[in-house]
Amino acid sequence: MDTPAELGEFLRTRRARLRPEDVGLISYGARRRVPGLRREELSQLAGVSVAYYTRLEQGQSNNASEGVLDALAAALRLTEDEHKHLRNLARPGRARRRPAERPESARPGTRQLIAAMRDVPVVVLDRRFDVLAWNPLGHALTAGHLDARSPDRPADRPNLQRLLFLDPHTRELYPRWDEEARRAVASLRLAAGQYADDRRLAELIGELTMKSPEFAALWSRHPVNGCTFGAKAFHHPTIGPLDLSFEMLQVPDDSGHRMLMYSAGPGSSSEAALRLLGTITRTEQPTAPRDPRTVKLTTGGDRHPESR
């Protein structure tokens, strides 16, 4: 991804959403050629020179100080996630590691944990929103039409963003699809700024931009939001409507893996429906997710490749 160009686009979209009167400036009712604040007005608010801000917006400066970035964030009234995104774009070489090329997998301990959470739908994601693992209830809720073992196969591993925009079954799962799409793009924008050198992430964004006009339109607005908790509406093909809360929890290591977990309000119809789905799932899928790094030997028994 072209980080300098991304920085300029981000700054322009945030300038465009503010009016002079929003930030205490007098516009005198003059006709404005562009929406939002002018560069001169933003520079005045942030306390930086117009020339310096222009270089930033044109991607010609990659050494902006923390003070300048903080001042711009305050002037633009950025959220915490947007402020973080601004830092990632303005300082692309800072605290960033190159992702490993080998296929990723969820840790055995993570798999063991989600398998034990029989009554809670859980999906384990990497930073690209690839599904690394899910427990039976997580699979049944979010992608029951797919093979439950597909996360174990890197070649055709499900990706939540790709499913949302390109898979008709997944689209039907969300009665408020537009809301879900906006949330998904905002999360992907934040990841793209954080992992600007991730080739596969860039390829995913390019694919979605080419194949989904709706994604392309949302992406051009440069939304940024971590979307780590909230509520989602489902219309499940087996159990009908559900209103669930979700939490996105970071796995405590440097992998970038996250656990997406869903729950229903106590005593609600959604709780009863989720319990029913769990009963159906336990009947149809009695096995727990396995570790793809485990190899079945012809002599019997499982063991890891490293122990050969």
Per-chain topology:
Blueprint: H1 3-16, H2 39-46, H3 50-57, H4 66-76, H5 80-90, H6 108-116, E1 122-125, E2 131-134, H7 136-143, H8 160-166, H9 168-173, H10 177-194, H11 199-211, H12 213-220, E3 229-236, E4 240-250, E5 258-263, H13 269-284, E6 295-296, E7 302-303
Antiparallel strand pairs: 1-2, 1-5, 3-4, 4-5, 6-7
Helix pairs in contact: 2-4, 4-5, 5-10, 7-13, 11-12
In short:
The chain is an alpha+beta fold. The protein has helices at residues 3-16, 39-46, 50-57, 66-76, 80-90, 108-116, 136-143, 160-166, 168-173, 177-194, 199-211, 213-220, 269-284; strands at residues 122-125, 131-134, 229-236, 240-250, 258-263, 295-296, 302-303.
Our count of helices gives: 13
Q: Report the structural category.
A: alpha+beta
Rg from C-alpha positions?
Answer: 22 Å
How are strands sequenced across the largest beta sheet?
A: 2-1-5-4-3
Fraction in helix: 40-55%
The fold-level CATH name of the largest domain is Beta-Lactamase
Distance between the termini: 40 Å
How many β-strand stretches? 7
Biggest sheet features:
5 strands, antiparallel
CATH architecture of the largest domain: 2-Layer Sandwich
- Estimate the global geometry from the Cα principal axes: elongated
Q: What is the strand content?
A: 5-15%
**What letter string, H or E per element, gives the SSE order?**
HHHHHHEEHHHHHHEEEHEE
State mean pLDDT (0 to 100 scale): 84
When the domains are counted, the total is 2
What's the CATH first level of the largest domain? Answer: Alpha Beta
Detail the poorly predicted runs: 292-308
